[in-house]
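Reading a protein record of the kind used here takes only a little practice. Think of the row as the fold of the chain written in a discrete alphabet. With that in mind, consider the following protein and its fold in token form:
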Amino acid sequence: MENEINGAILQIVKRADKCDKNTLVETFVNLGSLLPLLKGCDNHILYGRRGTGKTHILSYLCTLLEKQYDCPIYIDLRILGSTNSIYTNNQLPIEQRVTRLVIDIFSEIHDQINSFITQNDTAKEQYIVEAVPILSKISEELSQISIIGDTTVENRIEMAKSNELELQATIGTSSGLEFGTSKRNEDKKVEQITQHGTTVRYLHFPSIMNLFKDLLSIFSPHRIWIILDEFSEIPYDLQPYLSDMLRRTLAPLNNIVIKIGAIEHRTNLKIQIDNKQYMGLEIGADIYSCNLDDYMVFNNNDVQTLFFFKELLYRHINSLLPDGVKYNDSTKLISDLFTQEAAFEELARAAEGVPRDAFNILSVAVTNDFYNKVSVPNIRQAAKKWYNQDKEASVKSYKEARNLLNWIIDTVIGERHARAFLLQSDENHELIDFLYDARVLHIIKQSVSSRDTPGIRYNVYSIDYGCYVDLINTSRNPKGLFEVEDENGENDFCKVPQNDYRSIRRAILNMAEFDSHIQKINTR
């Protein structure tokens, strides 16, 4: 049986966008209140690191919406359009880049609604008669052309039988300014257009909103769900404009629901114009946020995390086993896969809340010892190997980030005997963000406060399991997340991050000390 289970593990598809719809449904595991929250009609942005399952969750949501005859429109923003990276071309005016982006998104919405209509057997005839004309009007709106810049149209009149010469001119496409006299029938008119500027598509927001209102009245009581995945792949400077378009056109409509999948620190929903006005979407007012790390990080809720990963492995492995050997419950499968419960718990801890990393670590462990159950040493060896192959290799390509990671390991693990640290929530550090993207740092708690620094909020970062797995069972093994001072003034290491502490001075990481460290290295 171990061989069949281990063989199935090596066949697991690790990216949701590579799976068919049936597999996504069969392998989906709900995370407590997350799915009911996303099924609600409020607009949401779902935050999560790469590999945490945003695409799987949003794709599964689409299948549920289809069953209730709503119209889900799933758009992967990584592959939107075919304009040769016009969005990222900073040589182009931002107006042109934004306009192209908006047009591409509305065109995709138009096309998917059209497909929904033609594939809906229950109301196909009604939809074709009533909705298709509205879709045609939306398409016409998208095809409108506007000229940014100066445009001159000259109509030169050449006369074949007369010595008279008459000139008619129009300055600008909308002014209609002209002068001249009447023509005889034998006149020959030659038109010459001089265009200064770039032709771009123009979108009139009120017209689009009114057309969607008409469309929704036909679909009622069913809804249109706009699901924008990989939002953070849109260039950072364009994101507030796209968000503002959503706020002004689709978000106000009752039967349109917007769900967004994004990486939090790579997302720019809003630009504050002044103390009253803003462009984009405001968290808590226009859209609500939820974060996958709140559900899946081992240090936040180990019971919930263990349940999730147990069901995740059960559903993925069971879907690949032959019918005669499928399991009826997850407990039996976990027992047959691992030598002991502690080995499974070690995998959940090593994954750091990232399902894709859990699959990869388990695959390495099975590959290294295919004919036996997976043990704790197997997991630790596999986690180290996966860290070296994937995460460390990524960090090595960026010298400054590698220097910072080495300094953090020396300071936090080496000197403080901890495996986590705190940074102020309102401070941005490019290198920290890079290490977070590389999944060697993980945010396990946000907005932590301390009574010795009132008014200041901190984020808790944990160091990846692969950075210290070699130290486990040695004298240098981290003693806990970080050191805090309890109510009696005694220092101790916390195991689970809390919202408030008496004192966390020794846990705060001072980035200025890293800058001094680098300066000393450079002056040697």
Remarks:
- The two ends are 60 Å apart (CA to CA).
- The longest strand covers residues 441-450.
- Confidence is low (pLDDT under 50) at residues 145-153, 157-184, 195-203.
- The longest helix spans residues 94-119.
